[in-house]
Amino acid sequence: MLDSTLLPAGTELAVRLGAFVSVFALMAAWELAAPARPRRLPRMARWRANLGLAVLNSLALRVALPGSAIALAALAHQSGWGLLNRFPLPGWAALLLGVLLLDLIIYLQHVLFHAVPVLARLHAVHHADPDFDLTTGIRFHPIEMLLSALIKFAAVVALGAPVLAVLAFEVLLNGTAMFNHANVALPAWLEPWVRRLLVTPDMHRVHHSVIEAERNSNYGFCLSVWDRLLGTYTPAPRGELDIGLPNWRDPRSVATFRGVLELPFFARQP
Fold first, then answer.
1. I need a surface site. Which of 139, 167, 213, 221 has the fewest CB within 10 A?
2. How many CA atoms within 13 Å lie on the side-chain side of 138?
């Protein structure tokens, strides 16, 4: 197994922050240079709300859950907890399995947040964004983020995922969420090849359709294999793609900081 002591103090924060800033800057530049779709609202108006949510979520999680998935992975390793700590796997195999299984759990969590009405109202903050760009990938209600963190923590302990697997997964999840929500399009010759492995913007954009059947498909955030294997894959929209939720269109409730915080409690059912 991989040793949990391989990460020096401060490594997690440096790696995750460095990866986030790098991917954000790259996707923002790509969107500016070659946007795939015209915007409905001014970028800065939406970004104030979406980035404000991201900052609030980071602060709220640090207060509500002072630990981290990395710390729990280290504790699980030291205590022998979890599935992967029960078997003498080579380090590379534990790392690969840890990342794959965590990605599957996030896929299943995403399905759950669409299937359960009270969770769907929280998740509607993400889907009510009237435009689709990299900040949509970090636009989630704080309560959803707290529940997601608890699910992730439980998954890390239950799996006994190695520390490096958890760190790799965190970086991949954050990076691919910004990539597949970006308002960009891969070249037509390249997109099908990338989609075989990763969720691409064209694939995930279908998941943000106003059409419910399309919205209830393409749940993957990182790897595209789960949608294919579990029957939730939709290769393309049926026609002209419209983004958002049909009943939640008012910019005051879907594109302002106060509006998105109040949306699950005061807006009409999507």
1. 213
2. 25
